[in-house]
Structures are given as C-alpha cells and as structure tokens.
Design brief:
Structural class: mainly beta
Shape: globular
Bound molecules: CU-O-CU linkage, copper (II) ion
Distance between the termini: 42 Å
Number of helices: 6
Helix content: under 10%
Strand order of the largest sheet: 10-9-12-17-14-15
Radius of gyration: 22 Å
Strand content: 35-45%
Largest sheet: 6 strands, mixed
C-alpha cells in the first residue's frame, strides 16, 4: 500500500470492518484438501427445495483457493464421487504431469481414491479448477471452483470479490435435469444450455457495496456451454485482466463484457452511487436483459474521494515477446455439428460415415478427425513460436482452449500482437483466426472447445511440445 492511499483509507478503516476482514481472507496458502462428493445446495433461494449436486469441499462453487505466485502449491484431491475424476487447473501454466487430462496425462482417480496435485503457478491472476473426466456431466452437476494466484503487490482495493457465473439446467423440483445429460441434440448444437443462472450458486444475489469503495471483481464463466454477454448498468467498470493476464485498464464499452465458457475477466469498480441505489448486472439476450445480480449501495461511506491509486496490474512472466518472423504455422479446420454437413471423419483410426459417427456420439471433427488421436496435431520444439490458423467451418461459435500456454489472437492492421493474452477465445461461426504462442511448456497439451459437450462429441485434439 502506498502511503498516500493509506492516509486516505486509514481514517475510515474503523468504520468499515469489512475492509479489514477481507484483507485477512486474501492471504494465500500453499496446502489444501479438496473432496469431491455428492451433496445438497440451495440454488433457487431460501424456502425452496435444495438441489442434489456434486461439489468440491462441500459447497458450490468449491472454495476459492488463494495461492502465492511462484511458490509450490499442494492440493490433495479426494474423489468420493460415484465415478472416476481428475482435476484440471484451467489457465495455469503448470508442469504437464499435473494438468489433469485423463489418458493423455494421468490415470483417472477412481472413486474412493486420492491424488496429490503439486505445481508452481508462474503467473498471478484469476484461474479456475474443474474435472476433466466426463466434464459435461461433472461440471453440469456443480463441480468447479476458482483458484486465484495472488500478485506480490496487487493494486489497492477494499474488497476482492469472485463471481463464478453458471448456467444450470434444472427441473421443476429444482433438481439437475438428468434426462438430457449427454443428449446428442445438445452435443450437435450449442451444448447444454441451462434455464437458471447463478453467481456463486445464488440466483440474482444482492451484493452490498459501500460509497467510495473500490472493488476488484473477478468474473469466471463456469457454464458448460453458455456464452455470457454481461452488462453492468450505471457503474463504470475497468477491465484490468483477461484470462488471468493483465491488460491496460480500459472502461467496459457500454458496460459490457462477453465471456465464453472458461474465460475470465478481472474488473475494477469504484462505487459512486448514493445509499439505497441499485445497479443491475444483466445477462444480455437478443430479447433484452435478464438481471443476474445487483450491486446495492449501503448507507456506509468508505471514503469521500475515490481512490486515485493505479489499478494496473504488474506484468506476468506469460507476457513474452513473439517473433512472428520465426513462427511455424499449422492449420486447424473445425467441422461438424448441426447444419454443418459433415459427411465422414476419422474416428479411432478409421474413416466413418456420419451415421456411424453419431452412434459413437461423435459429431465434430478437427482436420477430419473426431476425438482424440494417438498422434498429436503437431510436434514442436520447446521455445518455438507457434501459430495455429483456426478455420471455423461450421454453423456454431466455439470457445477454443489451449492447455498450458497463453496465446495471442492475431489482429488485423499494423500491430498484429496488440491484443490481450488468452487461454480461451471465442471464434464465431464461419470465422478464421490465427492464434500465436511460444511453445515453452514441454509436454502434451490439449486443444479443445470449452463448450464441454463439443469436446465430448469430438472437438478435441492435442499438441506436443518437446
Ligand atoms: Cu477448462 Cu481442458 O479445460
Ligand atoms: Cu464448440
């Protein structure tokens, strides 16, 4: 904390016990245990039926794990689910053996068994964890949580809030809609689309905020397949990070931010409203906005004059220079799905006509191949500047995610590298985009659509960094 800021906040700390309370909670730890098991959650509001979910650590979402940057972390995973599972640490550039991908990296952790995940997160930021076994079922039942890698010197804020935004498909008794789990129709269309949006497992929460308060709000789209187009009404929010990586602070255009499944955005918000004022956060649809949360200004004022300290994050080691003159380019053609006209594809080393593919629940293909292959999409040497030209030749948008690395999506114009770093990006139907990264993390890394029904239905491959 800079002295100037301390003078400003010091006087009000006594009035705002929440401020001091959250500072303590922000302290990171190195060791955690996470048990995954069936349990109950109230997703539809007090007085209404609870939902049978699967959860980490007894809650939905699982506990927020706060870990220090650049120090080893140990997480003991205890699988008490009725099926095998693994854990994946989405967006963290960790050692390959800890990436949690079954078959490619590790054996599935059987029901009743444990696995110790140990890794050192090199980059600060907002990441999340989820299973990588039957993800389309396990995530739909509530298995996900947020992992935050603390900056050594974060910008000053009063509170650091996490919002895991989910999209549930519930029946009228508030149960998980189970008949449609694994439904081919969803797999060939836009994935499992829900009917109930929650933030941290709560429907339309009211978050009490205080006058003059500075909030860091970490948004995570944990939905199976829904693209979250969010609008913050009446508040000026700055984006300071995307997919965990710092960006030059910028005001949200029209208060809007779009998050594909798997993506994150860190926002900074200074609360300027009057006591009692409410600011809605909406999920924007073609027909209008659905309110999913409210910021409600209390009659407490944390400070009269807003903080003027910088909201910019320190750079991460992920922010490397990319020499485009030395890059190797590969192609990835995405085909299939409803209205896609896919006729045939390789599946398990043999060409199959679409009718037969569907019997294997495969409807998407990457470079003519449905699902995982024994050979990688490509091999590159460690350090190689690598580009993948992605051709989305079908009728659907997709949220492409590369494990173990961050990449840039090449921009039009004079500075192709001007865009932010991502680990997941949205590619529209019919679009072609090129992503570039330095393949500096050795191992076998998955590349797949994070609409997890699409992954299961064939939209997955892997690359090998030697
Ligand atoms: Cu968040 Cu392979 O996934
Ligand atoms: Cu997809």
């Amino acid at each position: 904390m800079k002295r100037r800021d301390f003078l400003k906040t010091g006087a009000v700390l006594a009035l705002a016990p929440m401020t001091t309370g959250t500072r303590a909670a922000v302290r990171p730890a190195n060791e955690f245990s996470l048990m995954a098991r069936p349990g109950q959650a109230n997703l539809v509001g007090q007085g209404n039926p609870t939902t049978e979910v699967w959860q980490y650590g007894g809650t939905v979402p699982g506990p927020v794990l706060r870990v220090p940057q650049g120090k080893p972390v140990r997480i003991r995973f205890d699988n008490q689910l009725p099926q095998p599972s693994t854990m994946h640490w989405h967006g963290i550039r960790l050692a390959n053996a800890m990436d949690g991908v079954p078959k490619l990296i590790q054996k599935e952790v059987q029901s009743g068994k444990q696995f110790l995940y140990e890794f050192t997160p090199p980059d600060a930021g907002t990441y999340w964890y989820h299973p990588h076994s039957r993800t389309w079922e396990q995530m739909a039942r509530g298995l996900y949580g947020v992992i935050i890698v603390n900056e050594d010197k974060p910008p000053l804020v009063d509170r650091d809030l996490v919002w895991a935004v989910d999209d549930w498909l519930l029946n009228e008794q508030a149960g998980i809609e189970e008949r449609s789990l694994g439904a081919m129709h969803d797999w060939a269309h836009g994935g499992r689309q829900g009917n109930w949006i929650t933030i941290n497992g709560e429907p339309e929460p009211e978050v009490i905020v205080h006058g003059g308060e500075r909030l860091r709000l970490r948004l995570v789209n944990v939905a199976n397949a829904r693209i979250m187009d969010l609008r913050f009404k009446g508040v000026e929010a700055h984006t300071i990070a995307l997919d965990g990586q710092p960006v030059a602070p910028e005001v949200l255009p029209e208060g809007r931010v779009t998050l594909a499944p798997g993506q994150r955005a860190d926002l900074m918000i200074d609360i300027t409203g009057k006591p009692g004022q409410r600011f809605a956060v909406e999920y924007v649809t073609r027909r209008g906005g659905v309110k999913i949360a409210h910021l409600v200004v209390s009659n407490k004022t944390v400070r009269k004059h807003l903080l003027t300290s910088s909201i910019e994050l320190p750079p991460n080691p992920a922010d490397v220079a990319l020499d485009l003159k030395r890059m190797k380019t590969f192609e990835l053609k995405m085909e299939g799905g409803a209205m896609g006209g896919l006729r045939e594809a390789f599946y398990k080393d043999r060409v199959m006509p679409i009718r037969e593919l569907v019997q294997h629940k495969q409807v998407w293909a990457l470079n003519g191949q449905a699902g995982m292959t024994r050979k990688p999409l490509f091999r590159v040497r460690r350090g190689q500047v690598t580009a993948i030209r992605i051709i989305n030749d079908n009728s659907w948008p997709h949220a492409m995610h590369l494990h173990g690395h961050h990449f840039k999506v090449l921009q039009e114009g004079s500075n192709p590298l001007a865009g932010p770093w991502h680990d997941t990006f949205l590619i529209g139907a019919g679009e072609t985009r090129t992503i570039v990264f330095r393949a500096d993390n050795p191992g076998r890394w998955l590349l797949h659509c994070h609409m997890v029904e699409h992954t299961a239905a064939g939209m997955v491959t892997w690359v090998h960094v030697r």
